[in-house]
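Morning. Coffee machine broken again, so started the prediction first thing and wrote up yesterday's gels while waiting. Chain of 107 residues, entered below exactly as on the submission form.
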Amino acid sequence: MDRWCHPTGGHPQGDSQGSLNNNLNMHYVYVIKSGIKKWIYIGSTSDLKRRFEEHNAKKVKSTKSYAPFTLLYYEAYLMKVDALKREIELKTHSQQKEILFKKLHIN
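Came back before lunch.
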């Protein structure tokens, strides 16, 4: 499983050297935080920038009442199945979510 992590809240910029082969179709697991309520959302997508914009434009039914959002963290995967497995892992295994949230200093 190939995974890249970015804890600073920015949009994907590539690997640690700042380059990402544009021919790769990356898949992302992301964590966003509501700007109006104490609420965190974990999701996955193949287009992180578009999905983040959809959340902030209130186009996502499950998150629209919590907008605007800040992107706290994302992980990039080469395989969609790996991203989906990680999303499920974070949503269903509280220990994995707790480890990540501790790393990100989220209470």
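Confidence is low (pLDDT under 50) at residues 8-21. Going to sketch it on the whiteboard this afternoon.
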